[in-house]
Amino acid sequence: MWDAVVVGGGLAGLIAGIRATQRGKRVLLVTEGVGTLFHFSGIFDYGDVEGLRHLPKHPYTLFDSQAITQGKHFVQEICPEYVVNDRPQSAFNVLGTVRQGDLMPRSMVLPDPQEQGVFVLLVPEGLKDFFPEIVADNMAREFPGWQVSVKRMQVDALQEWTRLGKSVTSIDYADIWRSEEGYRALAHEIDEIKRQFQDAGRSQGKIVVVLPSLVREYFDASRTKFYRNEFSLPVLEMSSFVPSPHGRYFAEYLKHIFTDLGGELMIGARAVSLKGELNSEGHAKICQELVVRSMGKLMRLKGKKFILATGGLLGGGIKVGMARRSIRESVFDLPLFIPQEWSVPQFLAPQPYAQIGVETDQFMRPLDPVSGQVVWDNVHVVGRMLAHWDPWTQRCGGGVSVTSGYAAAELI
Amino acid sequence: MDSRDELAARLDACQKCNVCTAQCPVAKVNPHFIGPKGLGPDMERFRLGQTIPRETTLDDCSNCKTCEVTCPSGVKITEMIIEARRAASKAPHKNTLGLKLRLRGYVLGRAEYLGKLGVIWPTMTNQILKIKPVRLALDKVLSISKSGPLPAYGKPLEVLVGKRPKIKASDSKQVVYFPGCYTRYNEADTGQILIKVLEHVGYKVIMPDFHCCGLPLDANGQFEKAHKNGLYNLELMRPYLEADMPIITSCTSCGLTLKEEYPKFQTTSAQLIGAHSYDLFEFLWQLYEKGELPLDFQEVKASYGYHPPCHLKAQRIGTPVVRILGLISGVKIRNLDAGCCGLSGSYGFKAEKYDNAMKIGSTLFEAINVGAGRGDFQEITTECGVCKVQIQHGTGIPTDHPVRILAKAYGLIN
């Protein structure tokens, strides 16, 4: 019997799993694949928390502001490179424009635009989906007082890739920088830049090397070795394109923290159904076991509490069928809030379908939208599966996932 | 829905998110490999239109199944690739593979015959395989890497079946053990220890004269022979399966084959095999949950790094060994989970793949070296025989099957 079975290995599920394990609970985390964390840019958006708390039914209304701050501090606790700040901070996105974010690694935070200096954009050869000219143009526009210069570099280990004209993903580059050989190549290149700009007297101001695909805030599989930071110039990293190295390393990092604390991870398993019965008052049902398809047999995972963190439409927690209006939550078959009209014509406008999800009570237990009654007594819904919010226009995806995951773990 | 339609349906489930390629150990080290998404679902669209790519491209996949476990949409990527290999082997223009490589496929696929040969005079075989010119010759003639860590042979595990196996429904305290070629021919003592452990927890062990499960044959293009082996083994299992007896595996690749491939066969026992096959620790954990696992453990003061084999992950059962060993007082176990060891069955034995196999394993080797250097653990434990061989080759750190730790705790070995 597990204290909690978490279904879903994305941000909300892993945060819930880690926090509950940290609190001494026996936790099993079941996930079909790696989840949407591979799309994580490295920056957590919380959005206008106070404003959103005034929207009826927004997930933030389920939490007090203290709980939201606690979640932020938890991220900082498990990954000290993230620094909780009162005001939003700015970073370069993958196109070189400036975006704000509420929680980002130290190494992404942009310098003061009022200062004077030089950005040297270091472009690794053949980096996939990266357009140096556009990036440099955008950087110059964003920082009018700064000079922007582009330097390309090659890595020996990738000669064959270059010869074949094959692009290299930012995940592969991030991996190379962590190797001894890759680190040396990078350090050498940065020394060169220093010589070129500073020692030659070409610049009096600050020189900042900007590098895509450098992920240095999480330690690697050996659990000991943080990315080495000793370069002769400050290095600023950009957020990344998908599949994102930040997402990949963060997912791995959270997974290792979870299993090192004693949590058990069951990856590749698809939750298919559950067994439960009505509670003593006869209102809500108590879930006893989650049924998971594991090759030829069905595994029954018994738990005291269940956390549903399967994601929304993108993560696969909500399935839309070919039949018109066929839409369902795929594990517990929970009733969903579905707006009358799913979409509006303007592509970038707030889309009603973003609001699709499960309505819950203040303990994140699923509600029947018609009767308002709790459906499952010991099931907590977290992350993207929650109804009445829009991560894209409200820019609060990380905030809702971290806060709800953390808060659910406190209820185990 | 027949299986072909099902595959097509999973094909449409691919969202092109590229996560599988980002996680693929081979794509990371081999620029010529287009990666699981490319070779699986992308090319599958062409294959469905009858354009069959050259076998050598298909051959780059090491069959570790990391992509399938990683896929958020449940796409059977490796299965598509293996199916395409099967189709390519029947295609009219199949002479793309030279005689040497076909011969090598024949040899490496025959883990069982190699085992039978090797154990006739194990010391001699082992000595011969250590001679440099012999390895050079194997490299030249068969493209079997001269540097690869070929496993040593020992006295084989004896078959355990009564003259007339008594199978009664009341004899529920019996299990069938499927040892696999590695345990049977290379590490029979591990097999004997496992049998002792099963007896200690109250089960009589039956071990018929199984053939190789077929996975190395499939992986080396010997599809028909693999199929024959499967049918043979299923027939041997039939009476036991019909008597509702569990089939226990200790090799994660054999376990995966029993669970994933055998149910596709067109026999009655194929319908029973999936629900009856268990990894050893999966089986023990089930006993524990029912309160039937003896907990008379002695303290074992030791720390281990644990490497979860790719084919254990592909069984989708989590890491039951960590749960079981966690019950023993004194045992400290750290789940390294640092990726594929690189050997992937017989992949890393191949001359042109050896360097890449070592590169694939480097993350794991580093995690092991750093952990051991810091004193987190002194030994490594892993269920898979070839992972073990590769880890020892890459790090020099003693590595063994976790059943030995359990046997120590039960006082069955020192």
TrEMBL record, chain A:
GO molecular function: glycerol-3-phosphate dehydrogenase (quinone) activity
Keyword terms: Flavoprotein, FMN, Oxidoreductase
Top-level taxon of the source organism: Bacteria
Gene3D superfamilies: FAD/NAD(P)-binding domain
Cellular compartments per GO CC: glycerol-3-phosphate dehydrogenase (FAD) complex
Domain FAD-dependent oxidoreductase 2 FAD-binding: 3-35
SUPFAM superfamilies listed in its UniProt record: FAD/NAD(P)-binding domain
Protein's UniProt keywords contain Oxidoreductase: yes
Keyword Cell membrane in record: no
UniProt-recorded name of the protein: FAD-binding protein
Species this protein is from: Desulfosporosinus fructosivorans
Species lineage: Bacteria, Bacillati, Bacillota, Clostridia, Eubacteriales
UniProtKB/TrEMBL annotation, chain B:
InterPro entries named in the record: 4Fe4S_Fe-S-bd, 4Fe4S_Fe_S_CS, Cys_rich_dom, G3P_DH_GlpC_su, Helical_ferredxn
4Fe-4S ferredoxin-type domain span: 52-81
Highest taxon, organism lineage: Bacteria
MF terms (GO), sorted A to Z: 4 iron, 4 sulfur cluster binding; metal ion binding; oxidoreductase activity
GO cellular component: glycerol-3-phosphate dehydrogenase (FAD) complex; membrane
A matching Pfam family: Fer4_8
Record key words, sorted: 4Fe-4S, Iron, Iron-sulfur, Metal-binding, Repeat
PROSITE patterns registered for this protein in UniProt: 4FE4S_FER_1, 4FE4S_FER_2
GO terms classed as biological process: anaerobic respiration
PANTHER family: ANAEROBIC GLYCEROL-3-PHOSPHATE DEHYDROGENASE SUBUNIT C, GLYCOLATE OXIDASE IRON-SULFUR SUBUNIT
Name of the protein described by the UniProt record: Anaerobic glycerol-3-phosphate dehydrogenase subunit C
Source organism of the structure: Desulfosporosinus fructosivorans
